[in-house]
Amino acid sequence: GFLAGIFGIGGGAIMVPLQMIFLSEKIKIAIVTSLGVVLLNSIAACFAHAQAGYILYLEGIILGIGGSLGVQVTTRFLPKLPDQLVRITFYIFLLLMAIYFLIRACS
Q1: Distance separating alpha carbons of residues 50 and 97, to the nearest angstrom
Q2: Euclidean distance between CA atoms 39 and 64, whole angstroms
Q3: Dihedrals phi, psi of 23, to nearest 5 degrees
Q4: What is the DSSP secondary structure assignment for residue 16, as one 8-state letter?
Q5: Which of 67, 11, 18, 70 is nearest to 36 (CA)?
Q6: How does it sit in the membrane (predicted)?
Q7: Distance of alpha carbon 17 from alpha carbon 51, whole angstroms
Q8: Out of 4-8, 31-35, 79-83, 103-107, which region has the weakest mean confidence (pLDDT)?
Q9: Percent of the chain predicted with pLDDT > 70
């Protein structure tokens, strides 16, 4: 939770790998569990940041709608995908994010 709050990233980038390593959870269970944790953390953070006046409401609504639509699709397909495909896709995503942030940090 501390790392997610400091870096502004949560479920996918931090909690899923930690659950897989320390709790020996399968990737699909880790993804679903982290979504529940992210929901609770997001609600708490949203209230705190709203009180401080740090929220861009229009952008938040747009991102929320996009996320809600994406969740409807992925919750139907995730259980049907092989664990190996989900794992490889997740690792590729993390690698691409690491490269992206490295490039941004060096420029």
Answers
A1: 28
A2: 12
A3: -105, 0
A4: H
A5: 11
A6: Multi-pass membrane protein
A7: 32
A8: 4-8
A9: 90
